[in-house]
Design goal:
This protein has 308 residues and is an alpha+beta fold. The chain is built from ten helices and ten strands. Helix 2 packs antiparallel against helix 6. The protein is elongated, with a radius of gyration of 28 Å. Keywords: Signal.
Length: 308
């Protein structure tokens, strides 16, 4: 039986809109705590360690970087807004899930979890630490001894027409609590990584891309900013273009020609990645290929794929 995931953050948003901030309500001023409470409603395979590590980041960043650590067998993510429906049919299960889960706004019915969620050990420790930090110190103070005071009659005072009643203090005015990333996300939906199927015809190339360390979507290419990249490492926000041709077997003149032809496209891919805040790396299989690319453009980041 499937139960809809509870969204604890909604309660904090409602509470902050109707009451002044207090030491017992740090979530209104601390997005890290709000992220931990939201992460506590999801099933994790790492006890929530990734969520705790990334809790200081905006929720979309946390969701992207820690999507791999979720228990995908128990998690079902929908896209009721339709903004994530840019993945192909073959990639919808992964692409729409990552996109919808990373949405900063709360959408009812977007996340469904099978079974009861047990809060990850790492998340529970972090939440307990917040509870101790924001505990009211007055609760631990001893009650002062009171003595009877002689009863006296109050002296009546005439109200002064010049004095106006002072308004009750309302506390500091904080901006409305809400996702500040929503408008930026809406303006640049093309920067949301969407897993798409590998291009067919070169299994060796695809295997090299899938084996990239910490590849967040192994088995898929990733569509970002209109370009299909070979791999994405969400932890470091790095997009990859993999080259598996036998470059070292070509004569020097042919090597220089190949690099000259490919260089404009590599620079274009780097510009598309950097426009969305990603780093860009070229993976090659030989030192000769790396050196040739470096001679053509020393600003390119090139890595020899020892695993390929």
């Amino acid at each position: 039986m499937r139960l809809r995931a509870s969204i604890a953050l909604l309660l904090h948003v409602s509470a902050c809109a109707t009451s002044a901030p207090s030491p017992r309500e740090p979530a209104a001023r601390d997005p890290r705590l709000a992220n931990l409470q939201r992460a506590a409603t999801l099933p994790w395979t790492d006890e929530g360690r990734c969520a705790v590590r990334e809790a200081s980041e905006p929720w979309p960043v946390l969701a992207e970087r820690c999507f791999h650590a979720l228990d995908h067998d128990r998690l079902e993510v929908h896209d009721p807004t339709g903004r994530c429906a840019v993945a192909s049919a073959g990639a919808a299960a992964v692409g729409l899930g990552a996109c919808a889960l990373a949405a900063p706004e709360i959408v009812v019915g977007a996340v469904v979890v099978a079974g009861v969620v047990v809060v990850g050990f790492a998340i529970k420790e972090a939440l307990d630490a917040y509870e101790l930090k924001w505990a009211d110190p007055e609760d631990a103070r001893p009650v002062a001894e009171t003595r009877p005071v002689p009863e006296t009659k109050p002296v009546p005072q005439e109200p002064s027409p010049k004095k106006r009643p002072k308004p009750e203090p309302r506390g500091p005015e904080f901006p409305p609590v809400g996702p500040t990333e929503t408008s930026e996300r809406d303006r640049h939906p093309e920067c949301m990584p969407v897993p798409v199927p590998h291009r067919g015809g070169n299994n060796e190339h695809n295997k090299c891309a899938d084996r990239i360390p910490y590849n967040s979507f192994s088995g898929w290419d990733v569509l970002v900013n209109g370009k299909q990249f070979d791999a994405l490492q969400l932890a470091t926000r790095t997009l990859w273009d993999v080259k598996t041709d036998d470059f070292e077997k070509q004569p020097p003149r042919s090597q220089d020609f190949i690099v000259k032809v490919k260089l404009p496209e590599l620079r274009r891919e780097r510009a598309l990645a950097e426009a969305c805040g990603y780093d860009f790396v070229i993976g090659v299989r030989s030192r000769a290929h790396k050196q040739a690319l470096f001679r053509a453009d020393p600003t390119l980041k090139v890595v020899i794929m020892d695993w390929c």
